[in-house]
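Last lecture ended with a question: if I hand you only a sequence, what can you say about the shape of the protein? Today we answer it with a concrete record. The protein is Inositol monophosphatase family protein. Below, first the input exactly as provided, then the predicted structure, then a couple of comments.
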Amino acid sequence: MDLLEIKAVNTDVQRWLATAATNLRQHLHTHFQVQTKSGRNDLVTNFDKETEHYLVDQIRHSFPNDQIVSEEGFGDAVQNMQGRVWFVDPIDGTLNFVKQRNDFAMMIGLYEDGRNVLGYILDVMPNKLLWGGPSIGLHLNEEAITAPENASLAAGLFGVNGPMFALNRERVRDIVFASSGARILGSAGLEFQHVVLGRQVGYISRLMPWDFAAGKILAETAGLSVTTIDGDPINMLKSQVVLVTTHRALPEVQKIRQS
Ligand code: 2AM
Ligand code: CA
Ligand code: CA
Ligand code: CA
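The predicted structure:
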């Protein structure tokens, strides 16, 4: 896609997100239904499904030939990254959404032939949209923002997944003790927002493609490193342990893990 096309797509996506988020904020205390998926902390609500249905419908209507990867079943069984592939997470942080109606994000990522194009992480309640991509730069709502400082591990907070921290999986506890401190937000999207905005030096968690697709585009546009825990390139169609950090903290994290 050329820059004009990317700008036109961006206008569409921002309109869809605004509509979906306004609807969610207006109705989040009514008609609330919660179901469990794989276990008692793996939840889905009618709002996850309705929001995904709406966003996937908009994409299909505007871009009928594109492929869509999404969490709650309205997308496609995508086998490859050829052409344009969209990633949709309608509510990221569903457990927060259910328990406190706060700290959850709406996310969309767009790739073309496997390359980063556009990423969106909307912190829904305060209406803070982090968006951008390699050809249009980074923005927080209407404001252009600059890349975060290339901080060392010791200089910043580190976002982690709760069970990985508790069990020291992938030596996450040791990584955290070398940082300024652990943060556990319960939303991969909001963790990515914090790293891109320079409020955390990194984040690590086992994630699904819709959890990291938007964040990877935004983080890489911000000059951050996004790899697997082993330092390998991310596979866009698999669950894996994803590590986002500054380039300065990356070897420091890897050294702890290998020690
Ligand atoms: P979700 O709310 O969209 O499911 C919580 O630690 C973070 O990890 C959230 O971003 C959550 O996304 C994500 N996550 C990934 N796999 C999960 C799982 N099996 N159960 C709960 N949260 C999961
Ligand atoms: Ca979920
Ligand atoms: Ca998610
Ligand atoms: Ca979700």
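Comments.
1. Residues 3-145 form a domain with the Fructose-1,6-Bisphosphatase; Chain A, domain 1 fold (CATH 3.30.540.10).
2. The radius of gyration is 17 Å.
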